[in-house]
TrEMBL record, chain A:
InterPro entries: PhnH-like_sp (IPR038058), Phosphonate_metab_PhnH (IPR008772). This is Phosphonate C-P lyase system protein PhnH. The keyword Nucleus does not apply. It comes from Roseobacter sinensis. It comes from the Bacteria.
UniProtKB/TrEMBL annotation, chain B:
It catalyses: alpha-D-ribose 1-methylphosphonate 5-phosphate + AH2 + S-adenosyl-L-methionine = alpha-D-ribose 1,2-cyclic phosphate 5-phosphate + methane + 5'-deoxyadenosine + L-methionine + A + H(+). It comes from Roseobacter sinensis. This is Alpha-D-ribose 1-methylphosphonate 5-phosphate C-P lyase. Catalyzes the breakage of the C-P bond in alpha-D-ribose 1-methylphosphonate 5-phosphate (PRPn) forming alpha-D-ribose. It is an enzyme of class 4 (lyase). Its EC number is 4.7.1.1. The keyword Lyase applies. Belongs to the PhnJ family. Keywords: 4Fe-4S, Iron, Iron-sulfur, Lyase, Metal-binding, S-adenosyl-L-methionine.
Amino acid sequence: MQAETLSGGFADPAIQSAQAFRGVMEAMARPGTVRSISGATPPAPLSGAAGTVLLTLCDPDTPVYLAGEADCDAVRGWLAFHTGAPLAGPSHCMFAVGTWDQLNPLSVYKIGTPEYPDRSATLIVECTELTGSGACLKGPGIKTSSALSVPEVQAFQHNTALFPLGLDFILTCGNTVAALPRSTRVSEADGATEVSSCTLP
Amino acid sequence: MTQYNFAYLDEQTKRMIRRAILKGLAIPGYQVPFASREMPMPYGWGTGGVQVSAAILTPEDRFKVIDQGADDTTNAVSIRTFFERTAGVATTTATSDASVIQTRHRIPEEPLTEKQILVYQVPIPEPLRFLEPRESETRKMHALEEYGLMHVKLYEDISRHGHIATSYAYPVTVEGRFVMDPSPIPKFDNPKLGDMAAIQLFGAGREQRIYALPPYTKVVSLDFDDHPFEASKADHPCGLCGAEESYLDEVIIDDAGGRMFVCSDTDYCERRQAAGHVGKLGGKDAA
Ligand SMILES: [Zn+2]
């Protein structure tokens, strides 16, 4: 067992996971807002935010798919030690983590059923940048419109067309997090989108 | 360290509830099943709301609990004390000072802000339950958007009473998709559900359901072209503070059966009185 397997978890799990959850919840409730979350120091290549989301939401009840480079011994050992989450392939996971390219194709993940649309995967997308600018977002949680740097537009449009089925996305970069639930309508920037700060609490 | 888990529930239970809350926010108005836990209080005391509050509270929060608008009922005081002890949160009765408000049967009069979260205690989350007792069938009806029977039921009200008699738990359509029970708030409060700046979370303990309205969600009360929805209230000003626009309770004020109408939102009423507003009976002791 590597030393980093044992380290990098929450020092005070109950409090730090509560605080991190509020950040993730606010992000999911207000698509386009970018928030800081902290607490976990996972092994590379995971970002602090992705590690914090995993520790906050995953446990033995949630199969996790490690995509691409995230599927390494260091991450496997760390996730198992700190969450007990079993590993799974993309078609059986509740959570997946990786870069956009590594997570694709999206068609293999669970999108829920008509009676239980909540039984769908949540994808944690590691991004090289995460700012409140770029594609235009509209829908629940957004007063008029908001903006977010997204890896691409069309995939989210396809996902939204599945509503109420579909995938939900948590975007991570460094210690920041944003979210794109299936309810958000994403379109190419119309030039009038505003830039929101990356460091909101 | 205290002898309790933070906010009473163990970490695995809170994670399960947190995952349900996120799915609820992603599918506004849809009822997410969750494995409700026994809480150290009876079901009628809002154990669904308590579990949602337990999953979202942080030590930085300031928590308010209202029971039909009042902060001082046994139920409200018990829940407030419960989280003071188990989560170490500060509490308040002032709507504007609270970051999380748990409520039974009311939405505060004062508009909520983007910094606030409203948690509803829900007894019966399924708006179609009285039409169809089987969960498997109501699930199908929601899946297929089969809401015709709901409209028939409301229209029967009109033919029987000349108006829609349903005055509490008046059903709404969320973002043009899911029909949702807003919990037994008076229909006077329905217009506040939509376009609210705060996050709204709904927890039903006995029925094991969580659902949610993200901020600025489109929420429409069911109605008909010839009978549009009306957010009605008693046609009086508040006897204590003179408010014309607030939701009122009728209370008995003396042994002779004298009655008066007063704001159901006690914090709102007290603030108005403190600011110098006086109703017709404002000088009398209404306790
Ligand atoms: Zn009043």
